[in-house]
Amino acid sequence: MDAISRRTVVSTGVALLGAPRAAAAAKLAFAVFRNGVRVGEHEMTFSGADEDVAVRTEVSLVVKLGPVPVYRYAHQALERWRGGRFFSLTTTTNGNGRLQRVEARRAPDAVLIDAGGAQIRAPAAAVPLTHWKAAALSGPLFNPQEGKLLRLTARRGATEPVRLASGEAIAATRWSLRGESQIDNWYDQGGVWAALRGRLPDGSTMEYRRL
Q1: How far apart are the C-alpha atoms of 12 and 112, rounded to whole Å?
Q2: CA 138 to chain centre
């Protein structure tokens, strides 16, 4: 989540059903807020075109108590799609010194996940919950940080105003995930991920607002 210029969505955009349709890399970036206080940034870089795409994610968060940092979080991921289908994922996460690593890859009849030595055999249609691809939310989902399968149901909602980091309000379609988590994502009229709101385990609220 490195801070970059306002509302950075480069090239022709990230299609709702797929990846950037341009040879050059596209970037998507968000300011991240916890209980209304900005705590970091989330940046995704897309390379490739049409249905074959690589997505690199960088997340950096610092939660402070007054001026004192009390929690630091860093997450890096490389996600690949081939032929419009999820192909592989590698992630590394450092949550206040706790290191986690996940590797997932598609096999002929399953998605095989290695989460810190634990082997998980997920359904062949499973995809990581990385939020940018709305069309993937309805399938089986797994946590890209922990590797575990998620018990979530996705529902497409109404088109409504949503606020970006700049303060500008745009029309966006809400997708709600309910079950073991409560997460709402919004996608603009071009299908590009625009915002997120979710509840954290400690009861606080996290928001993403596109830069």
Answers
A1: 33
A2: 15
Stretch (H or E) spanning 25: none
Percentages helix, strand, coil for the chain (3-state, rounded to 5) are 0, 65, 35
Tell me the C-alpha distance between 5 and 110, whole Å: 40
List, in order, residues 6 or more apart from 200 with CB less than 8 Å away. Answer: 34, 206
Residues 6+ apart with CB under 8 A from 108: 124
Enter the tokens of residue 164. Answer: 């970006």
Q: What is the pTM of this model?
A: 0.87
Beta-strand pair 182-188/141-142: unpaired
User: Under CATH, to which class is 26-210 assigned?
Assistant: mainly beta
Element (H, E) at 91: strand 85-95
Cβ neighbours for 144, distance < 8 A, ≥ 6 positions apart: 77, 79, 89, 91, 102, 128, 129, 130
Which single residue is written with the structure tokens 């991921």?
77
Residue pLDDT, tens place only, 184-196 = 999 999 999 999 9
Query: Would you say residue 75 has pLDDT above 60?
Result: yes
